[in-house]
Design a protein that fits this description.
Oligomer: heterodimer
Mean pLDDT of chain B: 90
Distance between the termini of chain A: 54 Å
Helix content of chain B: over 70%
Distance between the termini of chain B: 172 Å
Structural class of chain B: mainly alpha
Helix content of chain A: over 70%
Number of helices of chain A: 8
Low-confidence stretches of chain A: none
Order of helices and strands of chain B: HH
Low-confidence stretches of chain B: none
Strand content of chain B: under 5%
Structural class of chain A: mainly alpha
Radius of gyration of chain A: 22 Å
């Protein structure tokens, strides 16, 4: 609050929740989300790729050990949940976990730090946490949605999919209901995936902004517990997005 | 909550990141992990083999030691026997040698005694003769009594 003296509380909140945008109507781009997510994504996964390029089967270094621990965690989950040839599921799950985790982690930086620094450089608005932008969460969940259908068609063929959609779960006589149920079920997947992550991170960001409105000498009292609790949420949300993706793809790969 | 073209941009970024992971991260690390797992398995198997080898070698060395011990005992008993034989032989030899030497010495002594006896006999005869001669110088004719004298000499 101290940095934005002169703003009222609602103006401060509104300022923090406005994206840096270019374009008109649908063709608007949230530059802050795009830049932060791409920068962090390529930074972290680039680091992973660098480690991977030097990976040794001998004694691993510290960095390689970290990467291996994360990768083995993902691999274990995929093995437990996904039956059949994993193919791209495991790398996809790793990408989701690492990317969502690192983007969520931006939430732990002081809410005013990045916007203020960029403000000094003349940037008016900046939302630092990309996962609090539904555009990103929906981009991910819809990509997963496309993959779910790709896996469904690959595993069952179009005919197999139609048969399943029309006859499960109530049998052929209830075909329209089955179809409606299937439609709801499938549409719920990307929406719940996207909204769960968005909701959690948006709420988390919101609480940090509200805490920032307190007098400076009181902020730590709420800020510290919330930040510590948020470490859990950050990891948990990244894990949930990953595990649900694996489960959905596993369901697509098997018949009901 | 305003959905806009950012979604498309994010989807593209997401797709590229997935591609990067699939291409550059997942395969090399899983390969390294699998290779390490294999190395560890090999190492453990080698350790197991070395363990059993060691046990075998221990058994073998025990056997060799036992054999060597029994052989050594055999050699010792043999040598003891041989030593006793040698001692016995030496004793026997020494005894016969001693007997031989003793017999020789005895024979020599006897011979000396005989020689001395012979010398003494002739000297005593001479002495008797000389005494008798001195006593009987005039009366006795050596020629007439030669027979008698020689008989006396023979008796001595």
């Amino acid at each position: 609050m101290s940095e934005s003296a002169g703003l009222t509380s609602s103006e401060y909140i509104h300022h923090h929740l406005t994206n840096l945008q270019v374009g008109q109507g649908f063709w608007t781009f949230n530059l802050d989300t795009l830049i932060t997510s791409a920068l962090l994504g390529f930074l972290v996964l680039g680091l992973f790729a660098l480690v991977a390029s030097k990976a040794t089967s001998g004694v691993p270094g510290k960095l390689q050990s970290i990467v291996e621990v994360i990768l083995e965690m993902v691999q274990t989950q995929v093995r437990d949940v996904f039956h059949g040839e994993p193919g791209m599921v495991a790398p996809l799950a790793l990408t989701i976990f690492v990317w969502v985790f690192i983007l969520n982690s931006v939430d732990l930086l002081p809410v005013d730090l990045i916007p203020h620094l960029l403000g000094m450089a003349g940037v008016g608005h900046w939302r630092a946490v990309p996962t609090a932008d539904p555009n990103l969460t929906f981009a991910m969940s819809l990509t997963v949605f496309v993959l779910i259908y790709a896996y469904t068609f690959k595993a069952k063929g179009v005919g197999g999919f139609l048969k399943e959609a029309l006859t499960a779960p109530f049998g052929a006589k209830m075909a329209p209901f089955n179809l409606i149920f299937r439609l709801i079920e499938d549409l719920a997947k990307p929406i719940s995936l996207a909204l769960r992550l968005f909701g959690n991170m948006y709420a988390g960001e919101m609480v940090f902004i509200l805490i920032a409105l307190l007098p400076p000498y009181l902020q730590w009292l709420l800020g510290a517990p919330w930040a510590i609790f948020h470490i859990l949420i950050i990891t948990l949300q990244a894990f949930i997005f990953m595990i649900l993706t694996i489960i959905y793809l596993s369901m697509a790969n098997e018949s009901h | 909550m305003n959905i806009n073209a950012t979604l498309l941009g994010q989807a593209i970024t997401f797709a590229i990141l997935i591609w990067v992971t699939m291409k550059f991260i997942w395969p090399p690390i899983t390969a390294a992990l699998e290779e390490r797992a294999k190395k560890i398995a090999d190492g453990l198997a080698a350790a197991e083999r070395a363990k059993s080898d060691l046990a075998n070698a221990e058994v073998k060395s025990q056997e060799a030691l036992k054999e060597a011990k029994s052989k050594a005992a055999e050699i010792i008993s043999l040598s003891e026997k041989r030593r006793n034989e040698i001692i016995e032989e030496a004793k026997n030899e020494a005894r016969t040698e001693a007997e031989r030497v003793l017999a020789q010495a005895k024979a020599e002594v006897d011979q000396e005694i005989n020689k001395a006896k012979e010398a003494l006999r002739s000297q005593v005869a001479d002495l008797a003769m000389a005494g008798a001669e001195k006593i009987l110088r005039r009366e006795i004719n050596p020629a007439a009594h030669a027979e008698l004298l020689s008989s006396i000499r023979a008796e001595l």
